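re: ur question from earlier - yeah i can do the single chain one, its not a big deal. heres the input i used so u can compare w yours
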Amino acid sequence: RNNIAQIRKKAGTAEVYGVLKGNAYGFGLLEMAHLLREEGVSSFAVTEVRDLVILRNAGFIDEEILMLRSTALEEELTKLIEYHAVCTVGSYEAAVALNGLADAASIKVEAHIKLDTGMGRYGFLPEETDKIISIFKYMSALQITGLYTHFNKAFSSKKAVEEQLDQLNKVADAIRSAGYSPGKLHAANSSA
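and the output i got, formated as tokens:
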């Protein structure tokens, strides 16, 4: 509880996500979710569809749950839609797949765009701004409400973090210049 208080203090008015990947880093998915909710955290993030399902079935109905992993697999996307996740779009293929399923169901699906500024795991590269903007232009079943990256060197390099933040802001500015809103920007892990 003290750690949560310290993070919230440092975050100021910024929204704090409870990242619950890997069984909440070994502390227990539901135990940590309940504790975080008691402490006022109402936005969560997971990396596995099963964790989303467990949280929803345990009564986390109104909370935002962001799926941090981009996927184009129909089975996973169907579950993410069914359980009202905020999906991550980390590739044009994932955007097309998600948009197609949402369009077929005549619904809008909320999603965040993942930008790869150095992690190397997945996400659009900063120079792929045209692909990102085409999602706003042509994928009407997606409601893009966020843009994010991951500060993979926050433990060791302030310079790297500043460079990654600069890349995130440049892409967000390009989205705004094209007439769209990137939504909420997020990137900071606990170390950042």
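The longest strand covers residues 142-148. not sure if urs matches, ping me
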